[in-house]
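This week, study the protein below.
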Amino acid sequence: MTLEATALVLDGHNPTALAILRNLGRRGISVATLDATPSPYGISRYAKDSVLLPDAGEAALLESLLALSENKPVLFPTTPAYADFVAEHFSVLKAHFRFPAPSAEALASGAMTDLFRDLMPPQRDLTGSKDDLTLEIATTLGFPCLIKSRDGKKEAPIQYIPSAAAFSRALEKIEAEDFYAERYVPGEASDNYAASLYYAGAGELSGFVTTQVLRQYPEFVGEATYVKQKWIPELIGLVHPRLKAAGFRGIFHATFKRDEFSRKVYITGAEACFSPETELFTHLGFETPYLYYLDSTGDAVPKIFFQSDTNCHFRDGWRDMAGVAGYLKTGHMGLMKMIADYKFRKIPATWAWDDMGPGLNKLGAEAACGAKNLYDKLPFNK
């Protein structure tokens, strides 16, 4: 199959991919998607084509990509998992597609983590007997702590562990070699931050924007569901010197959390991929998908730096509703606080007046899912 589009987006199942499609489409760039299964968002009016994989698995993905590479389109991996896939098959894909990364290390999540390891919370492998591990975690990392999956692909990639008893129970349900423990940085949802930076040359910074989290889901460990753009210079100072020294090129996204007691800021995630808040950034003028496209095609990349507050908010509505319900259930955030944080000027993750199809399709998918769950709970189905 010959792909007519000049850009190919991997995985249309998330708001990040939708933001990339819309930004490129509004710029007049022909873009297509490649998915394993139909997306709950349907097909954006800005997608020229939508291709489904014939089979599941990395082998089928690589084969399909090569079949679509005749015109050497710009390749957009939308998630860390897809960035790792491109890194794993870097030499083959670099010869058939265009993207800014100069090496596999500039995409692999493991390499990004290693670059900032000393700025992250302390970690501990889960090797040893259960009793010895529980005692060591209690005396080093302390409780509460987190248990994280090494590859991030498990059913529960991050677990919040409030006590030693909960830690012992969690160990019984996992394969220890696939997970590790990490110190939990204490703080509220608003102690979480994020920064997205773009490098158009080897260590040449072309733009950045920072955000503050207002709500997250799941609580303690989940991604942001409601954020605001806020200028936080400290975040750029933590990551830019190392990225510049490493000659990094492309899109970079990092998450942070400030310890509410020591006030120290830790890096909690570092990835060479687009931010979940990409729709907010493109609305503000920091069009990271378009910058990525220009960089991949060899065109000049404009410099855009946000060094002030815009008071613009972003909300992932479907996940935020679950987050609000969770906060009200636990009492960790009151209704008055949520009302105080509410702003009319906010950018939705899914809805757009010039591209209503994905929002309506997502509404239908969520309604169908809710109806199925309700039907399964009926007495005659038990």
In short: The first strand starts at residue 7 and ends at 10. The chain is about 35% helix and 25% strand. Residues 209 and 306 are 5 Å apart (CA to CA). The mean pLDDT is 92.
